[in-house]
Amino acid sequence: ISYVTNTVTAKYRELWLVNFTSPLPVEVLLPPNATLSGVYTSFTSLRVEKERLLLEFPPGAVMLSYALIPPLPPQPPRPAEGGAPAPVQPESPPSQQPAAPEQPPSQITPPEGGVQYLWLVAAIAAAALAVVVAALLRLRRRVPAELSETDLEILRALQSAGGGMFQSELGAKLNLPATTLWRRLRRLQELGYIIVERRSGKNYVRLA
């Protein structure tokens, strides 16, 4: 079954986050011009189909992030060299002088914006290749998932709350002991997923 929904995706700054749970194996096909940023749960396959990344996940939690490469903006037409066209001269009778040698065509220089865009695309492509290689190595070595189910529940709860909530509210929503919740929050903060702030004398947890 293929479907499109806005309940499994969220945007944080320049990254799109895909986060859902499936009771069956599932395939995630990224949109065109998408660059994979991170995969936070175990997956079984990673390949390219029609210039789009396709990831396969086993039953369970699915969480990944990606960025979209902006399209190249259209360049305005360049004015002809020499300014205004030269006035038309009246025709003269043909002479016997030899024809002038043909001039080689002028070299076309790409606009600066196009060069910068090509460098940007090359840099993003290199970063995407590094992410894919790291993901394949992780799959080959069968390293366990970086985030536990409790970690994913915390991130989902923060996402459903609009990006942040107080620690006491989070513990009540997930029915977690205070010590267990604090230990998971410290780990998620060390990994860069969340930020814990002091507001009104209480801990406020928000997505990074």
TrEMBL record:
It holds the Pfam family HTH_24. Signal peptide: none annotated. The keyword Membrane applies. Residues 87-108 have a biased composition (Pro residues). The keyword Transmembrane applies. Residues 74-108 are annotated as: Disordered. Keywords: Membrane, Transmembrane, Transmembrane helix. The chain crosses the membrane at residues 117-137. One of its GO terms (molecular function) is sequence-specific DNA binding. It comes from the Archaea. This is Winged helix-turn-helix transcriptional regulator. It comes from Thermofilum pendens.
